[in-house]
Design a protein that fits this description.
The protein has 397 residues and is α+β, with helices and mostly antiparallel strands. Helix content is 23%, strand content 20%. The chain contains ten helices and 16 strands. A hairpin with a 4-residue loop joins strand 10 and strand 11. Helix 5 crosses helix 7. The relative contact order is 0.09. The mean pLDDT is 90.
Length: 397
């Protein structure tokens, strides 16, 4: 891990992050004149680098973070180091880039505090969040920072996070602005400091309207949020999100990962077939899944689901009628806090002797009393094809 020394504005490497000194961390959206690792480590620093807007941002971050420990309540430890993703990762080294992205959520968690810089927001007056009247609160919620994939983990991982406007005036902390943040992100306030308590589907929904420059990054930016690791394979395209879901299945019993529906503007979906795989093509499919709760006690599975070459192996009790299966998931949808919840169901169609595909995928369906009478109750081992790109030969259209 490379850190910037606030006194010298030079990078120092710390092999073991647990032995690194206390540090601050920057969260921001990238602009056109960011400074790379190679530019920042030039000796001496070139005039071209010094003239970049990205270099001025780094300097201002370092100066602000150095003073911030004196302004914060609770007397945090003195901080003399900082981390900025533009210049503290050697992106020409694939090994270093992979390590950084797989470690990034943890780095934001370990930071003494995080400074979130909103380049497109100017604070009216000098009253901080208390001066944010309705019009300015709306402008705050529309900041580009709330639309990017990488800033989701940068919002949720740090314990202490403070927002700064274009001129580096403090706006308020994550706690101060919790209501505005919740409205901007569709993240319930209770999850802003404990995201792991939310179901897989709920966490996916937080990324459903966010975007990244590289297709693969919409998966890579979520690894920390789901506490999984995987190698980076730039060039694999939407397959990265498929791999992410496979890793989640290997480490979680949360069946809400299947509680999604295809959306018309999902550019990663083929979108012309009547059946799909068990996994979504992108986080966009989880837009209506924010209120999903995992409930392990709804259905007793004899064995965990397993990824195989045939597809997702499922040992299930379900309803069967001809070549169709109806399966109730161990997750529930809460329309209101008063309940009762609705149980999510999947409808599967037999494609080969052992393999099934998902149908009726344009909406999330819920179990009804009539479903208890549909078909015959059976226990089966089945394999569900993983991804719609693998379903091509099994569609009826």
């Amino acid at each position: 891990m490379w850190l910037i020394d606030f006194d010298t504005l030079q990078l120092e490497e710390f092999i073991d992050v647990d032995l690194a000194p206390p540090y601050a961390i920057l969260s921001h959206t990238w602009g056109k004149e960011e400074v790379s690792f190679q530019e920042f480590t030039q000796t001496p620093l070139s005039d071209a680098t010094r003239s970049k807007a990205g270099y001025r941002k780094i300097k201002k971050f370092c100066a602000t973070a150095a003073k911030w420990s004196r302004w914060c309540e609770g007397e945090p430890p003195r901080v003399n180091y900082g981390w900025v993703d533009t210049c503290c990762i050697d992106k020409k080294s694939s090994a270093e880039l992979s390590e950084a992205i797989n470690s990034m959520y943890g780095w934001y968690m370990k930071a003494v505090y995080c400074l979130a810089y909103l380049a497109d927001f100017i604070l009216p007056g000098s009253q901080g969040f208390q001066g944010l009247h309705a019009d300015w609160q709306q402008q705050f919620r529309k900041c580009r920072w709330f639309t990017r994939g990488w800033t989701l983990q940068e919002l949720l991982a740090p314990e202490e996070l403070t927002f700064f406007d274009h001129d580096w005036n403090p706006i308020g902390s994550k706690d101060d602005l919790r209501h505005q943040i919740s409205e901007a992100t569709n993240i319930e306030i209770e999850y802003l400091n404990s995201p792991a308590h939310a179901s897989v589907a709920t966490r996916m929904s937080w990324a459903s309207r966010r975007s990244t420059t590289r297709i693969e990054d919409i998966a890579y930016c979520l690894m920390g949020l789901f506490q999984v690791n995987m190698p980076l394979l730039y060039g694999e395209g939407p397959k990265a999100f498929l791999r992410l879901q496979q890793e989640i299945i290997r480490s979680s019993f949360d069946e809400s990962i299947f509680a999604w529906a295809k959306v018309s503007d999902d550019k990663h979906s083929v979108g012309i077939f009547d059946s799909v795989g068990i996994f979504a093509t992108s986080p966009a499919a989880f837009r209506t899944s924010a209120n999903m709760k995992n409930n392990y006690h709804v259905v007793n599975r004899p064995s965990p689901f397993t990824i195989t070459s045939y597809g997702l192996r499922m040992d299930i009790e379900c309803r069967q009628s001809n070549n169709l299966l109806m399966l109730r998931l161990s997750c529930e949808y809460w329309r209101t806090l008063l309940g009762p919840p609705l149980w999510v169901k999947l409808v599967l169609r037999q494609a080969t002797d052992k393999q099934y595909v998902r149908i009726r995928h344009d909406t999330i369906e819920y179990w009804s009393d009539d479903d208890d009478k549909w078909g015959t109750l059976v226990k089966k081992r089945i394999y569900v094809i993983l991804h719609e790109s693998l379903v091509m030969g099994h569609n009826t259209r």
